[in-house]
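assembly run, all chains below
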Amino acid sequence: MYRRDERSRATVAEGSALDMELRRGCCCSPAPAPQEPELQRALERALRVREGARRLLPACSRPEQALETTKTLVLCEARVVAAGGELQRRQEARLRGARRPSEGGPGAEPVPCRGTVCISDLRIPLMWKDTEYFRNKGELHRCAVFLLLQVGAEIHDTPTVLVDRTLTDICFEGAVLLCPRFQLLAHTTLSLAQVHDGFRTHDLVIAADEQSPCWVPLYGRVCCRLAARPSCMDTPAATGTLRLQAPGAEGPGGTPLFCVLRGPGLLCYGSASEAEAGQEPTLTIAVTKDTRVRALDSGGRGQPPGVAVTNRLGGEEVTHGLLAESTAEAQRWLQAWGQHLCDLAQWKQCCEELMRIEEPPPRRPPAPLPPQGSLYHQTAIDPSDDIAAVTEILAGHGGAPRAPGPPPWLSLFEGPPLRSPSPPRRSRPRTLSLDARLSTLKGRGGPPKPPHSSSSSSGSSSPGPPQRDPPRALQSRV
Amino acid sequence: NYLISFSFQQRIEIHKLRQGDNLILGFSIGGGIDQDPTQNPFSEDKTDKGIYVTRVTAGGPAEVAGLQTGDKIMQVNGWDMTMVTHDQARKRLTKRNEEVVRLLVTRQSLQKAVQQSMMS
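ok done. output:
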């Protein structure tokens, strides 16, 4: 929801070469940045699409076309500015901080792990004035709204929703239509503090006032569920065998346990196979951002190297000593602990519990109709008809194994209209149409059709008998 | 730094471009229930026989409308595309009397980027 003449929000240095390029609206790509090929590609793509949309806009014959093209333009502008700004920023960072500590070295500061973030169930409440709400004459206030979401250099948009007084909230799922000039109505910024595995309400900063031509009576809030799952909750920071030292004891010895450092705990199993089988761990040591870890040095007293993990439980400090098999192992564990505690400190509440991340809905196979739900059963005229009898008939011929896809009897209810019904085969009267189809079924007796030809609802011709050809990988231009 | 993964399916409205006698959309498709799904470079599940966008012509109507390579086409103008042959899919997109096609696509490309960066 950006105004076309509004100052950009990303930080492109004024007067810089990139800035001049952007202002000129030049379609030639800016100075190539070979170190950032993906960003470069994104920028070039946005510029190309912007050029295409600009050319398309005056040629639009219908208002819906113009609306979508304008929306595309707004998005491209935002992407160009974001990608360009990000490239600029990275370039400057490279020039400034030339010497960075090598990643993974023993003295290096750990960098927090990445994660997956998901925002869903977006809803923006509206507050219509009663004069508007009950108005019957005059032009109805209507406009098209979409959300633009930005994280760093990534821009995403939602489908456009048509808003008028019949809506109490703007929910994002819907469809298109009407006026081709977008104006920023409101914005909000969400950060780590707002991540929560549940529906929450946030305040909007309103930008447009009632006088603006594209005004919508926003209540001032937006609701959504912002979830995040850092990778330290899924992937273990370290796994391996450690010996759990008995409390107060020193020196070698202790129970060997297969330990997995993941998320909010160090899970200790009797063996690796137990861990893989998903059984309950023998012992779980809680790990929070308040957990303290230090190295157990191998001193002269025969103390093997290891790690001491200290938690504060109910005002008392509890320390577990974990002994490693070698100095190298102890070192590896110490590094893993360091990384993991850094992740927990940075991701905060996201590490307390695993949050559900929405997945795009999986491909739905065509749902087979259960026999009891068939429409034809419900139109049985005689009340003495019952579902069981009809199901029996169908089951009698359904002994053949069903191919995957729509059940064969589904095709009974498609096809050309009936001819004269045959006389009823049973003493109890039935609906004529069902009976005629049943007699057709009895005459068949062959195996059910393969899914290819029975999914003929499209009306286009099926490609013939099931092929035994070698599998192909066709591509078609459309 | 983190990347976002979205649960939205994208609705894409492509206005075909007239080129001579043809109406073109400016992209290519692969997949179909009569095709070999293991050769699809874009699908997560290699038994997925759905229709995928394999190429998008630069500056064409599909690109301008927001279609991207790797998108999986779920519906075209309300018709299901998850259980069709390759030819049926092509036909549903190229009806001569339709100037606009409304696609429902699933985009997984961003999720892939997150997984790749977490593994690197």
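Residues 5 and 111 of chain B are 5 Å apart (CA to CA).

Chain B is about 20% helix and 30% strand.

not gonna interpret more than that til we talk
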